[in-house]
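As the work plan foresaw, our protein records have gained a structure token line. A representative record is set out beneath this paragraph:
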Amino acid sequence: MDVLLAVMLRSVYLVGSLLMDSRQVIGLVAAFLAAVLAARFGWHGTDRVLARRQRSED
């Protein structure tokens, strides 16, 4: 019985540590995706502004 309890506590500990590690990885992936999306939409917005300015000059 003690062995079973020890195995269960060990598995709970391992799952907890795995979740803590995965939170950091998920945070890094989310930050990277946010940066890529911001760069993409920023570039797209700049292109629209420049196209609008060129149309107004013509």
